[in-house]
Amino acid sequence: MAHRLVVDGDACTACGTCVDVCFVNAIGWDDDADQPVLAYPDDCQVCCVCERGCPDAALTIVPDWNARRRLPYLSAQVREAAS
């Protein structure tokens, strides 16, 4: 349901808290850019726990409220990794 993850590169200290607090593992880490990415946007529940958990207020979830689909379920990749 999330459309994109906006990261303020100047504010982000690459602590990884956003990845740690995402309970559906929708956020991953881009080693090349050294910042978080929305790895599984269909799994994002737009709960904004990552935003609130970021000690530097460096990221924002931008939801796609126009998406016409049922509530998202965990992707097969995430279900497989969890088992």
Explain what this protein looks like in three dimensions.
The protein has one domain: Alpha-Beta Plaits, CATH 3.30.70.20. It has 3 helices and 4 strands, in the order E-H-E-E-H-E-H. Strands 1-4 form a two-stranded antiparallel ribbon. The two termini are 24 Å apart.
Question: Keywords for this structure?
Answer:
83 residues, alpha+beta, Alpha-Beta Plaits, two-stranded antiparallel ribbon, two-stranded antiparallel sheet, 4 strands, 23% strand
Short description:
The chain is built from 3 helices and 4 strands; from the N terminus they run E-H-E-E-H-E-H.
The biggest sheet amounts to:
2 strands, antiparallel
Question: What is the strand arrangement across the widest sheet?
Answer: 1-4
Low-confidence stretches: none
Number of strand elements: 4
| Helical residue percent band | 10-25%
Supply the number of structural domains: 1
The secondary-structure element order is EHEEHEH
Strand content of the residues, in percent?
15-25%
Distance between the termini: 24 Å
Query: What is the CATH C level class, in words?
Result: Alpha Beta
Give me the secondary-structure category.
alpha+beta
Averaging pLDDT over every residue, what do you get? 84
Principal-axis shape: globular
Radius of gyration: 13 Å
- CATH architectural arrangement: 2-Layer Sandwich
Number of helices: 3
CATH fold-level assignment: Alpha-Beta Plaits
Write the SSE topology.
Layout: E1 2-7, H1 17-21, E2 27-30, E3 35-38, H2 49-53, E4 59-63, H3 76-82
Antiparallel strand pairs: 1-4, 2-3
